[in-house]
Design goal:
By secondary structure, the chain is of the alpha/beta class. It has helices at about 5-10, 165-170, 190-200, 215-230, 245-265, 280-290, 305-315, 340-345, 360, 380-385, 385-410, 420-435, 445, 455-465, 485-490, 530-544, and strands spanning about 35-45, 50, 60-65, 70-80, 85-90, 100-110, 110-115, 120, 140, 160, 175, 180-185, 205-215, 235-240, 270-275, 325-330, 350-355, 375. The protein folds into three domains: about 5-110, Thrombin, subunit H (Beta Barrel), CATH 2.40.10.170; about 165-380, P-loop containing nucleotide triphosphate hydrolases (Rossmann fold, 3-Layer(aba) Sandwich), CATH 3.40.50; about 385-544, Bovine Mitochondrial F1-atpase, Atp Synthase Beta Chain, Chain D, domain 3 (Bovine Mitochondrial F1-ATPase, ATP Synthase Beta Chain, Chain D, domain3, Orthogonal Bundle). The protein binds adenosine-5'-diphosphate and magnesium ion.
């Protein structure tokens, strides 16, 4: 890329935004700043700036500086002709005027890498934004890099446990793989990521990198405190390009975080946990950039380059013999429409997808994971073992049958079902409740003490429900508990009330008057109760 020959090809290739790069991180280092031929701003349109260079054009992806005290940072995206480049601003362009002088730094955007980063918070430029000292000495790397070649990639076929029952049992994450948390607004993606940070980072030996893309700044602040409280800040790096920043910054912050992660993997040979909230905002920022550059939108208004842009980022997240990058990404699904191109394209990159459903959230069944939509490539007998595989399969089957029976129950009532079907319904409702879990990160507002559950215990609990071993306990005994032992620990009399167990955290919310409708025992007499009434009571009680 440094040679003149390469430069001329890049000039011809106007749309070469995603041009493959050499993987040598230092390739721009010696070129240096080029103050001899400054450019001139010829147009400013929001975040898009056109620059005229009398001499040589800077390469695609070069970082340019302009404005007062060089405060405005631009990235070259398109070469319009031999002397004009169209650039996207990564900082606000307010105050920038035509005729302003532009300096080519001769290098792309870079971020610092290395051990010094641990415990710090950065923006897209790799500047610290916490209240610590400035980080100067660190080595820097270009944020644009080529993915690891195919022959150097590895897979481990090992499960990455999260301590969250519904995920570990039904959609186990892959160590060194990519997992997505899909859901519309406010169904619990961020809460789930925070809970995983709480459960996982402490046990995870390596380094964790959190990347906030286009979400609320408040969440970043909460996360910082959460990580501090868990005591793992010293092994964590945070990178933010939140929703108040320029589209260009949100578009590049994922690459910045990934560059830091790659360095830990390749140079320090550590296992890296990369959390991103929210990858959809990266796609959205790409759409904004594309619109600003004047490209015609494609399907549903997205950029025509959606697939390549996403792949350019996702393909870099991979594991090598040296170390693994395990990535967990929240994916906002616009208007709960899972056929949205952004969601569909993201799905295809992942080895595990956890789908959150609004219906479950509204019933208070948190985490609102949809067991029938969620899945993982790891859920195969030779990876998770025969028992886990069979239990997961039976859970799916039971819940799917319950789903089919719901219409009949709504029309005719539960008692019209055959004995077999009634048993399926009971199992399904117990499973649904057992798959809820109180979170550590939501303790303050739910009043339930958080629980992390070992995979073995979660599987065994589900198996016992499926084998009807726990029929003597009422459904609510399974709601918001950790291991199955907690359902048994309480002494339930035949009316379904806990006897003298008043430790408060183990019962359902709203234990009391509201639960009249749920008063039931399990040996069949409860079946007389209309399923409708039951449902509405459950929803009411659960959600409180
Ligand atoms: N596991 C949970 N337990 C209790 N409440 C939850 C849980 N998950 C989500 N919520 C509720 O839903 C709200 C929105 O969750 P959040 O994770 O911010 O949504 P998203 O990131 O999907 O937009 C939370 O503020 C909380 O009130
Ligand atoms: Mg969120």
């Amino acid at each position: 890329m440094t040679s003149a020959a390469e430069k001329s090809t890049s000039r011809k290739n106007r749309a070469a935004v995603n041009r493959p790069q050499k993987s040598d991180p230092d390739r721009h280092r010696n070129k240096g700043r080029r103050d001899d031929h400054p450019g001139t701003v010829t147009a400013v349109r929001g975040s898009v700036v056109e620059v005229h260079f009398p001499g040589e054009l800077p390469e695609i992806n070069s970082r340019l500086l302009t404005g007062q005290e060089n405060h405005v940072i631009l990235e070259v995206i398109v070469h319009l002709d031999a002397h004009r480049a169209r650039c996207i601003a990564l900082t606000p362009t307010r105050g920038l005027t035509r005729g302003a002088s532009v300096t080519d730094t001769g290098e792309p955007l870079t971020v610092p890498v290395g051990e010094e980063l641990l415990g710090r918070v950065f923006n897209v430029f790799g500047e610290t934004i916490d209240d610590g000292d400035k980080l100067d000495a660190a080595t820097r790397r270009s944020i644009h890099r080529r993915p690891v070649p195919l022959e150097d990639r590895t897979t481990q076929e090992e499960i990455f446990q999260t301590g969250i029952k519904a995920i570990d049992v039904l959609a186990p994450l892959e160590r060194g793989g990519k997992a997505g948390l899909f859901g519309g607004a406010g169904v619990g993606k961020t809460v789930l990521i925070m809970e995983m940070i709480h459960n996982v980072i402490g046990r995870h030996g390596g380094v964790s990198i959190f990347c906030g893309i286009g979400e609320r700044c408040r969440e970043g602040e909460e996360l910082y405190r959460e990580i501090q409280d868990v005591g793992v800040l010293d092994n964590t790096v945070l990178v933010f390009g939140q929703m108040n920043e320029q589209p260009g910054a949100r578009f590049r912050v994922g690459h910045a975080a990934l560059t830091m992660a790659e360095h830990f993997r390749d140079e320090a040979r550590k296992d890296v946990l990369l959390l991103m909230d929210n990858i959809f905002r990266f796609v959205q920022a790409g759409a904004e950039v594309s619109g600003l550059l004047g490209r015609l939108p494609s399907r549903v208004g997205y950029q025509p380059t959606l697939a390549t842009e996403l792949a350019e980022l996702e393909e870099r997240i991979c594991s090598t013999r040296g170390g693994a990058i395990t990535s967990i990404q929240a994916v906002y699904v616009p208007a709960d429409d899972f056929t949205d191109p952004a969601a569909v394209h993201t799905f295809s990159h992942l080895s595990a997808s956890v789908v959150l459903s609004r219906q479950r959230a509204s019933q208070g069944l948190y985490p609102a994971i949809d067991p029938l939509q969620s899945g993982s490539k790891m859920l195969a007998p030779h990876i998770v073992g025969e028992k886990h595989y069979q239990v997961a399969r039976r859970i799916r089957q039971t819940l799917a049958e319950y789903e089919d029976l719901k219409d009949i129950i709504a029309m005719l009532g539960l008692e019209e079902l055959s004995q077999d079907d009634q048993r399926t319904v009971h199992r399904a409702r117990r499973l649904e409740r057992f798959l809820t879990q109180p979170f550590f990160t939501t303790e303050q507002f739910t009043g339930h003490e958080g629980r992390s559950v070992e995979l073995e215990a979660a599987i065994e609990g589900c198996r016992r429900i499926l084998d009807d071993e726990l029929n003597k306990y009422p459904e609510k005994a399974f709601y918001m508990i950790g291991g199955i032992g907690e359902a048994e620990k309480q002494h339930w009399d035949e009316t379904g009330y806990a006897e003298a167990d008043t430790d408060g955290n183990d019962g359902q919310p709203g234990d009391g008057d509201k639960d009249e409708g749920e008063r039931r025992d399990d040996e069949g007499s409860s079946d007389q109760e209309g399923e409708d009434g039951e449902d509405s009571h459950a929803a009411h009680g659960d959600a409180s």
